[in-house]
From TrEMBL, chain A:
Pfam families, per database record: EF-hand_6, EF-hand_7
Highest taxon in the source lineage: Eukaryota
Name recorded for this polypeptide: Calaxin
SUPFAM superfamilies in UniProt: EF-hand
Keyword Iron-sulfur: no
Gene transcribed to yield this protein: CLXN
Gene3D superfamilies for the chain: EF-hand
Residue ranges constituting the EF-hand domain according to the UniProt record: 53-88, 89-124, 134-169
Iron recorded as keyword: no
GO molecular function: calcium ion binding
UniProt keyword terms in alphabetical order: Calcium, Metal-binding, Repeat
Amino acid sequence: MPEMSALNKKLTQTLAETISKQVKHFNKRETECLIRLCNGLLGDQTVSIHNSLLLLVYLAVFHTFDKDSDGYISVKEWIEGLSVFLRGTLDEKIKYCFAVYDLNSDGYISREEMLQMLNDSMIREPTEEDPDEGIKDLVEITFKRMDYDHDGRLSYADFERAVREENLLLEAFGSCLPDAESTLVFEEQAFKDPPGQ
Amino acid sequence: MGASLTRAAQWTTASSGTGKLEITPINESLLKEILSFVEQFSSRHPQEAKHVFKEPLQWSTTLVASDFKTDYDISGPTVQSQEKDSEGHPLLQLSPPTIFARSFSQLSKLVQLANDKKLKEVRACLEENRDPVVKILGPSFATVLEGEDNFVLRLVDKVKQEDQAADSALKVKLFFLLQHLDNQLLSNSLKKISQEVRLSPAAVKNEVELLKHFCSEGEKRVLKSVRYTSDYEFSNGCRTPPWRQVHGDICYLVIEPCDTETLYITCSTAGVFLNGGIKQEGEENAYERTSEMHKDLVTLLKSRSPHFAENINKQDFAVQEELPSTKKVQHVESVDAEEQGQPQRSYEHQEKNVHERARQQHTPNKPGGKTKLEPSPRWKSPGLMSPYDGTEEKKHRMGSGKEKSGKIQKKMLRSDSKKKADFSVSSSPGRQSSQKTKTPVGVMLAEAFSESSSESEEDEEQPERRPESNTDLPSEYWQIQKLVRYLKRGNQTATVLVLCAMRDFNLVQETCQLAIRDEGGLEVLLNLLDTKEIRCKIGSLKILREISNNSQMRRAIADLCGLQSMVKSLDSLVKDLKALAAETIANVAKFRRARRTIRQYGGIMRLVKLLDIPDLATPTAEQERDVEVARCGVLALWSCSKSTRNKEAIRKAGGIPLLGRLLKLPHENMLIPVVGTLQECASERSCRIAIQTEGMIKDLVKTLSCDNQELQMHCASAIFKCAEDKQTRDLVRQYEGLQPLVLLLNKVDNKQLLAATTGAIWKCSISMENVAKFQEYNVLEILVNLLTGQPEEVLVNVVGALGECAQIPANRAIIRRCGGIQPLVNLLTRTNQALLVNVTKAVGACATEKDNMEIIDRLDGVRLLWSLLKNPNVDVQSSAAWAICPCLENTKDAGEMLFYFVGGLELIVNLLKSTNKEVLASVCAVIAKIAKDEDNLAVITDHGVVPMLAKLTNTTDDRLRRHLAEAIAHCCMWGSNRASFGEAGAVAPLVRYLKSTDSSIHQATAHALLQLSKEPNNCITMHQNGVVKLLLGMMGSADEMFQEAAADCVFNIRRLALANDKASYGYPP
């Protein structure tokens, strides 16, 4: 973005300075890069971004990014979101994933929510009496496994405990985090060209 | 009928003419069939039966006129049929003893008349009409019969040519009837023959596939090409035309070796031989045998192509190299036991066993697969079919597995195309193709070539334990099967959930493992490894890691090419994934084929790369994970390092220095696999050097003082193997490793540890400085106590150590004072050869002390040693012989004692026929001692010791020369032995010994020459060989005995010359 004005540059730097102090995992330079990327996204929709960012189209993910629920992702929200995305600790990721899976944001994942999320995850066996039996069974198995307090719904505590026991359950109900390789590629691309140098 | 008669029927003489049909089951059934054909002919084919033969069939019959009834004109002994041909000749005519028949109707009638003589008549008829078809239809048809290919066309031509005959259609029909009979006869006799084959089509096929494999291997290729002359395979496995099959021919091959001309080979049931050059199907004239018969293709090729012989051996040896380290107590096997010791299975033996083993491997038939594919019952004679149907079965299973997984892939693809495109896209071609490369031939080869010893080192193929019927299966079985089905249908999210659910079952339980495998779950799990979904891969590996603790699962994983996928996973960026893959590899690599696969797919290199972690005092959390990955990598390398080639591969990949770095880490769970790997590698010399030069001895010695017995055992074992090199022994001492070793001797309950420790002490005590140290720690007392009640692995090492320590005189007395002599002598009755070598050495060392010798004598030790000369192992022989020498020297009445050893002297003289240099040298040394007693010398002279010693004089081995010269010197003392040595040509070679650079040889030789020079003829020989000049030079030696011997010898020669002069001239010159 060579056309960026000197003023803009100055503003970006100041913003980066402030945000980098509030958000974990990114230093000032990296924050600056991400702000520029965000600006790019806003300014020109055709800016090519790595595939992993296409995850953003998922509404749920958007909601978790949009913490103040105003329907927009502010620059700060964007960077905070990415910090979990790219460099989040297990704790942060558990929180993030739980928020994504808690579709109605009531603080619990219900059987119905789970079924909704897993609905298309298995090919239906048309020969069986109930073609959905498989998926229902799988939901039941998973639900029983994770519902430690047997209250018929997954609380955050349930979810956290399950993930800590078996890390694979972090993204139990659908991919919502980039994998290691995508992260690496994204970081490489985003941070490769430090501004103002 | 033509073909079957000439080819199937067994004639007494091969030449045509008046051969007799032998009375064999095949002939009998042939005759019976022809008979019933003839009998029924006129009723079945009345038209054709009337056809008049071109020429009558005539034979001498046993029938007489009285046998004939109506329809015949009987006049005296002759008979004529009333039935006549168009020209009025009778169709049947009997003028005893000859009978003429000209139509099938007459023949039919005839056999009916003949009653119980039927068979005899048919036989006589066939014997005298060797080509009945020619007679029946005319010679032109006979030629038609020969050319197989488009005979129908030619037949029509022939019939056209004979147009005038109105009955041409009849003729053709008759011809076909005969042809049909012919075929029927052939196929029947074929059935009979194929039941008694010796070489089976299956065996030939296997061998051909094996050879084909050798054609494609680039630089290692041993043959240019192998091909069949015919692509068509009959249901019985043969590829030859049926009329050749009756001769036992299975197939014809054209093989191009790399170094000689193309070979045309016939594989028949009787064996394999070169033919006249059959390039294509149907070249009739080339069938004859042009070489001698071989038992199989490999032996034939070996005899024809030196290149093949050389390289096929390499192929086999490559396999055999990995044979060692298969003993039960692996950690304690000494290095030299492997190098010098136990006679390993010879190549010959192994080759023979390849087939047998392949068979054994398949015999435990898996229930379920068995009924689906039955080979033709014809081949079901026992012992013939096992390898064949085994591979078939395997093929079948592989096929169904592939099919299944293929289906899954497709389904997965379908579902995923909806959601996320790249899930499992990469997988389906991967596994499919990898399975394709693994054709049944591949399976067979891999097993024939690599699995030769895996059973002994790990798990034999255990028979499957599973409940008898389905109802007995626990509910887990069905639940897991259900999950596996979900696994096949789910996308990545569902897959992960299913994998997690599966992990909740107790996967160590065999039922659960079987459930996964039976439902095709292994294929799916392995397919997942080829996807890009990291979480699926991790989940899959977590399950595979658990179930690979079962040997059957390990084999199944290897069969499905799972190791390749795991090796690939080692390249991942995700540390958890790498660690899991390495751990699973560590589990699977418990058998040789798996280890080889890992190496071949670059696994060793990748695993070694995992060890490359930065050297850090206080690692961060992230670096801790690197350490964990490295630990898993070492675990895998540890498993892999049990194969010789892998040891070398680890070293070449730079693994030893990296292991050295890990050795400095404090974690015990890291150190055990690290030291374990090191001690495995240490059986290779190149690795030992690397261990030493990388300065690891210091760390090993340090680790010896830890408090984990397993770790201590591996350390001691590593030192045991490394201390083979002198420098290492010195380093162990310098780093004060001897005392911790001695302390470990207290842990008598842990036999593995004890074996490793005593081994280390044994090897360290080869250096005398170390022995001095050991004396300080009173090692001998401890060792002597270990001489009783220990397993042989320990005993070998304890006795070895005592033998080394006893090289120092003071220690011999200590051993005696501790009561060590008796247990040592008692051990002479054992059978373990490694142990015997060490015991004889120890006893020999002890026998150099007179007080010790008394005890040995009392225990009849010399007799025990003597009986070990009969041991088949040359090392035991020579070691026993060496031990006998000091015994004979130090025992009081050695001569008398020996005199009473019945057959003992003959035994030792006969050992001079050995081809082993060490045996010969030791036996010569013993003979030198025996010959000191005159009576015994007389006995061994009678046994022909002189010519045998003389024969050995041409040797170039310095050690043997020395003891040989000594033996000759002592043997000269009896009768005319001096002259005998001269006559046997021993003198001239002895003179040459003086030119050797070894002074100890000179001394012994000088003594021998001195003795020999007392015989004038020998002096002449010596003089001719220029001995004087050589001896003159030696008279300047510092050793007085030597001086004297040399001088005396020259004196004897000179005196002879003087006497000669005196005799010639009557005065001294």
